[in-house]
Amino acid sequence: MAIAIVILSRCMNVADQLPKDIRGEAYTGAATCIKCHKDLSSSYAHSAHGLTSKPVVDAALLKIFAPDSNSFTFDPHQKVVIEKRDSGIFQVAYRDGKAVRAQKFDIQFGSGEKAYTYTYWQGKKMYELPLSYFAAIRNWAISPGFPKQTFYYDRAITSRCLECHASYVEKKVTQKSAFVMDEEMERGSIIYGIDCERCHGPGKQHVVFHTENPEEKTAKFITIYKTLSRKQKMDVCGVCHSGNTLVAQRSVFGFEPGDDLDAYYSQDFVGFGGGNPDVHGNQTTMLMGSNCYRKSENMTCQSCHNTHENIKGNLSIYSQRCISCHQTTKHSPATLAKGSLTTNCIDCHMPKEPSKLITFQQAGKDHLSAYMLRSHHIAIYPVNKK
Ligand code: HEC
Ligand code: HEC
Ligand code: HEC
Ligand code: HEC
Ligand code: HEC
Ligand code: HEC
Ligand code: HEC
């Protein structure tokens, strides 16, 4: 009894000393994880997942645009200018030289891999700014899907964006009428970026145990990925990588590894029924349609991606992962003659393709510009065949 109390009070002390996390008692926050997992944490801090949303810090924002590319002209009468003012940086709309609307950059979406989009707060609601920044052109263009005739400031951004680009937001939803829902979000509650516990589940008990038992080298009270089934592994990534058309039945912020994703999203019959999944945001369905996935027993996202390493752009390392299953390949002499057959399987079998969902409008261009992504439908593409 006495021993039990001593252990209990020691546990409670450890637990009490951990930072509080708005997601609930079971969570503790990335800062705590970093204490014991330093090696992983440094890579995480610079990863696309970690950086996919954050409050705009003016100095960082100023770095991305050259002074001569800080405006977007719609026509001779209308433009939007990115302006530094005393209270922050704004997207200011001008009509015939007169400023008619100005909204501040509050939150950045995207790590900048391909694009940044920005939002501003109005009370407890968030709206998207008219201009986004696209890495492919290193310049500003109209935010995807926005009108090209004039500036637009009124696209509401809901917590759904944050469900894939952040780790938490507190929201209040009220039913305004049969079909209209009204959502309010608490600014201060947002946990930016995709953090450790978003992918690994709540970790406080794990931390308490390992603090109490420093000699224990086997992980306790945290899901061991290796023990998950193939579907469970796919579901962990599928929370955010299986497309934008799924209807969430309940908030996916609560999803933990091991959970069944079907309990969160209602089936997307368009996407799974051999429809037309998009290269943007739907890597899961694309991959599941390829023979590599269908005819192997254990391919998952982790066959090629370790979310804790950064091998971005290193197609030769990725190609090694293909070769781990394809030691011998039958290529025709014509294909072999094209070279790079051992170091770059990717460009031929996972070519970059334009998204059907996302395009963007550059200034002075008649056509929309393509937003290119890797196709996760691994296959023999006709263009490479001779
Ligand atoms: C007090 C030290 C400590 C803290 C703090 C800590 N861990 Fe761990 N963790 C360990 C130890 C020890 C292991 C087992 C050895 C190893 O795999 O590195 C481990 C292993 C893991 C594993 C590997 C499980 C597997 O697949 O084998 C994951 C995932 C993990 N921790 C996540 C977290 C997360 C998330 C946090 C923050 C909520 C966290 N850890 C905080 C000590 C800690
Ligand atoms: C909570 C949502 C979420 C989960 C869960 C998630 N991702 Fe992502 N992932 C994103 C978002 C958002 C981006 C875009 C990041 C950016 O550049 O802003 C992304 C980007 C990526 C990228 C490209 C960037 C890079 O690092 O090269 C890869 C690869 C990736 N995810 C793989 C995975 C895998 C594998 C899993 C499952 C283990 C996973 N993701 C789980 C949301 C998620
Ligand atoms: C179902 C999950 C999901 C939702 C919802 C979602 N995104 Fe994404 N988003 C992703 C993933 C995954 C990527 C990266 C890979 C890709 O494009 O396929 C991404 C990429 C992006 C990028 C480019 C990131 C970069 O660094 O290149 C931006 C910007 C972005 N999303 C903004 C938004 C905004 C704004 C919303 C809400 C209107 C939103 N997203 C809703 C999953 C989602
Ligand atoms: C985008 C999802 C994602 C995020 C964010 C993430 N992890 Fe992981 N982590 C994974 C996956 C998936 C694995 C399993 C890798 C495998 O087995 O191939 C893993 C493995 C691990 C492992 C054990 C294997 C190893 O590489 O040592 C530890 C420990 C770990 N993660 C800790 C953390 C910590 C700490 C953070 C935050 C700093 C974090 N993870 C953030 C998805 C994620
Ligand atoms: C987990 C093992 C695994 C990995 C990793 C893997 N594949 Fe495959 N792949 C397979 C299997 C199994 C088949 C089906 C072979 C058959 O039909 O006999 C296949 C089929 C193919 C095909 C034929 C496609 C078709 O439609 O007929 C191509 C091309 C291919 N893979 C290329 C690649 C490339 C490129 C990579 C790396 C980006 C890769 N694979 C990674 C297991 C894998
Ligand atoms: C057979 C290998 C393979 C598998 C399996 C795989 N990927 Fe990829 N993925 C790649 C390669 C190669 C790239 C391009 C990397 C680069 O350009 O640096 C890529 C890029 C990405 C990107 C960045 C988007 C882009 O166009 O640059 C995301 C997001 C991503 N993968 C998510 C996933 C998810 C989620 C899964 C599981 C559903 C998955 N991948 C499974 C090989 C794979
Ligand atoms: C120059 C483009 C190109 C490159 C590079 C390339 N392939 Fe292929 N691959 C093809 C074409 C085209 C075919 C169809 C057969 C043919 O015409 O050669 C094919 C067929 C295949 C097949 C199906 C035939 C079989 O062997 O079962 C597999 C698997 C495959 N490739 C894997 C790979 C892997 C793995 C790599 C990298 C080590 C790679 N390919 C590099 C274009 C390419």
Overview of the structural elements:
The chain folds into 3 domains: 77 residues, no CATH class; 144 residues, no CATH class; 163 residues, no CATH class. It is 27% helix and 24% strand. It has 14 helices and 19 strands. The chain is globular. Bound molecules: heme C (7 copies). The site of one heme C (HEC) has 21 residues, from helix 2, helix 6 and helix 7.
Count of domain modules: 3
User: What is the rounded Rg?
Assistant: 24 Å
> Given the structure, what is the number of helices?
14
Distance between the termini: 79 Å
Low-confidence stretches: none
For the sheet with most strands, the description reads:
7 strands, antiparallel
Shape descriptor reads globular
Quaternary state of the chains: single chain
Helix content estimate: 25-40%
| Bound small molecules, deduplicated | heme C
Mean pLDDT: 90
Give the beta-strand count: 19
Give the structural class.
Answer: alpha+beta
> What percent of residues are in strands?
15-25%
